[in-house]
Amino acid sequence: MLHIFSRRGPRTARINGRAVEVAPNETILQAALGDGIDFPFICRVGGCATCKCRLTGGEVDELTETGYVLTEEEIADGYILACQSRPRTDVEIELPAEPVVSAEKVAGRIVGREFLTHDIVRLDVQLDRPLDYRAGQFASLTLDDLPEASRSYSFSTAPDDGGRVGFTIRRVPGGAFSGHVFDEDVVGAGVSARGPAGEFHLREGEGRALFVAGGSGLAPILAILEEMDRTGDRRPVTLMFGARQERDLYALEEIEGYAARRPGFRFVPVLSDDDYNPDWKGRHGFVTDFIAEEAEGVEAAYLCGPPGMVDSAEGALKALGMPGEAIHADRFIIREGRQSNFWGAVGLPVIDRPRAKPGDYLKFGVLHMAGLLAIATVLLGGFYAVIGVAIIMVAYAFGDLIAGEDVSTPDYGQPWILTLQLWTALPLVMLLCFCFMWQLSTGDPLGFGALVHATTGYDIVAARAEANPVVRYVTGIVGVGLMIGGLATITAHELTHRTWDPVSMFVGRWLLAFSFDVGFSIEHVYGHHRYVATDIDPATAPRGRNVYAHIVHSIVHTNLGAARIEADRLRRKGLPVWSLRNAYLRGLLMSLSLLVAAFLIAGWLGVLMFTLTALFARSLLEIVNYMEHYGMIRVPEQPVQPRHSWNTNAVFSSWAMFNLGRHSHHHAQGEVPFQDLMSLPDAPKMRYGYLATMGITLIPPAWNRMMVERLKHWDANYASPEERVLAREANRRSGLRGLMDYDPSALPPAGSSGAVPAE
């Protein structure tokens, strides 16, 4: 039976021994967060593996292809993604964030605290007995004063027979554990450690080792270097350390000591946010920018720090030809206190949801009505086609201004009706494109003109002969392109998030083929949702970039990203990249098949017009990406929050775009279907609806004038302290008057909720 009609009862998931009830159609992650379990996550759509855990008992239904982020070895060992797993039976889950290697906790006392930087501290702990660990591994720490706030930290010292260990801790805004050790006098306080855990440690070898660290990710590497000194391992070493400013560098004396006594030791510090420091003579930029210069002769690489940095470094090394088995990584994930309610939501409001009425289902048919209007006007041709395009554009632009906002989120008891609405977009788009190609043909392909004449009495063959061909070309590209960008791409966006539903994925990918963008189904879920609002995401426009440059940049790099993500998946599974198993290559063939159909109907003119129409539709997608995340800033290792997307609750942008305007909630919870997205009126807000905003983006001076003040408002009222530091550098690079000399890091702290009403 189709997935959308399926029903199942609640199941029990025991997560590290704690029982959690998982409701029907709820994922393990949603249930865990709803029960208050501190379960790590970032993207929630199966793109980052932060919620990776081990299934030790029972069975689950997996909603997505885990091979995109898990290795074959991990899959064989029972690892799953909690955000993409629904229990089929009662299940037992082992959460790696709390790995238990030793059978019991080892008690101890904090005997020293040293502030290494303004936001990094080292704790020295004397344990009652030694822990048997390898340098590079980590342990779970629990303070006696905070028994409910266990956190995992890497050892920053090599194993010691006397039981003395060190841990390096970075302050997390609002973090209970890190805030306590920073603000309270913890020397002498009781602490317990459970461990060790992790597979990050030095492998045997004699060739040069490359260590790449970011922030507190230097800690396990320092432990490895200490262990190498003790064991007499004299292999050459290059240590690259990325920090924001010179004040963020630490352990320099210790590193200088290694350089003095180890032949072949090279230290390369890189600062990403200190361009105006006249005393700094070292390198500027991201540490990963310089990997190619330092990787020559490297036998093995060890990467430790934020996931974004690690992923970028891993990609750079693989591009240089380093095999995956020679790259070892430890991704540091910030774990914050969380509250949950709606779909396992994080800090989102609890809302009342009245039962959906028939009108609540019908309102999402606006886009289909626009599609039917487009089909009719394309067939009528000439002046009617011009009128059709004008009606659609005016309705979208001014409908938002006149109709106001829709902030309701009804409870849809029959979601299958909405799913069927989504699926019917494919035959509508196919018919629309066929009608356009028929208008370009010189005959009557499939006898379609005769059929319409016999059925309606209107002679479309004669009307085609009398119409101005230039009008036909222009209105076809614009009108059909708008419908592909709307009826096809927007619908496909929703469907390709349903990675567990083969019918939805099939329909969604074919809809994307009409804009030459089937790779979207790969890169959007496994790339964009993972890296949104960071420099790594090609779909997030940095401050100061105009929309035309963004269209080109995003099209090129999202395609490259989709091809890379799919190739990595196949390599993990030991499958050939250049084969029909490659979903990206199959997507290219799908679009090629549409070009063949265009040729068969309308010859080379049909191929040219279809190509221009598809590229126009694809450009519309990139304009939408541009305005949805323009100038947003996020620390890569922190979870995506509603504040990382621009939102609108305008009526037409909601009804005619399947709630696409509720983008803040969508990115905070990518697994939530469109009808259940909340309006979040306190999220960062677009000034206008989608089509009006798209029009403004096409005039860069007008766009800049509007967005400078809105970005300042975002920096002041939504950004975390760490995001403000990144925003300051983004402002400097923007080239925009009003931002270049604006320093949001000097502003007073935003409200604790991070969300205030938009202007």
Automatic annotation (TrEMBL):
Highest taxon of the lineage: Bacteria
Any matching Pfam family: Fer2
GO molecular function, one term: 2 iron, 2 sulfur cluster binding
Cofactor(s) needed: [2Fe-2S] cluster
CDD domains: Alkane-hydroxylase, fer2
InterPro entries with a match to the protein in the record: 2Fe-2S_ferredoxin-like_sf, 2Fe-2S_ferredoxin-type, 2Fe2S_fd_BS, AlkB/XylM, Beta-grasp_dom_sf, Cbr1-like_FAD-bd_dom, FA_desaturase_dom, FAD-bd_FR_type
Residue ranges of the TM segments: 372-396, 416-438, 588-617
Every 2Fe-2S ferredoxin-type domain range: 1-99
Residue stretches making up the FAD-binding FR-type domain: 103-203
tRNA processing keyword on record: no
GO BP of this protein: lipid metabolic process
Keywords tagged on the record: Membrane, Transmembrane, Transmembrane helix
PROSITE patterns given in the database record: 2FE2S_FER_1, 2FE2S_FER_2, FAD_FR
Residue span of region Disordered: 739-759
SUPFAM superfamilies: 2Fe-2S ferredoxin-like, Ferredoxin reductase-like, C-terminal NADP-linked domain, Riboflavin synthase domain-like
Name of the protein in its database record: NAD(P)H-flavin reductase
Record organism: Hasllibacter halocynthiae
Lineage: Bacteria, Pseudomonadati, Pseudomonadota, Alphaproteobacteria, Rhodobacterales
